[in-house]
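Board work, copied verbatim: AAA1 protein
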Amino acid sequence: CLATLIIMLVGDTYTLINYVSFINYLCYGVTIIGLIVLRWRKPKIFRPIKVNLLIPITYLAFWAFLLIFSLYSEPVVCGVGLIIILTGVPVFFLGVYWRNKPKSVNRLIESTTCWGQKLCFVVYPQCAGAEEE
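↓ predict structure ↓
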């Protein structure tokens, strides 16, 4: 969010849309690759929806074309998009990977999470019985 706010203040909306669309297509392709890998490595697990593998493979062919064309036509925009994605790596290591955090860091993360949930109206309602216990 912070990177998006900075980009909105510095650049124009067209550039921001290009950054986000490149990131979205990159994530969609990685998701489809994950689907194919899981279908290949774990063919027996339960899947509520199962499609023919020709559909995701065809999608990946178009995805690769769009991604390569984007990288060729606008390499700076794609590079900035990748940098935006990589800003999440330190957040992952600080918030998820680091298991033995000090209590003050845990309290900061919990309060930030609570604040973000309230800001975005995504706080789950709590049961009355859970509050009494």
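Residues 23 and 67 are 10 Å apart (CA to CA).
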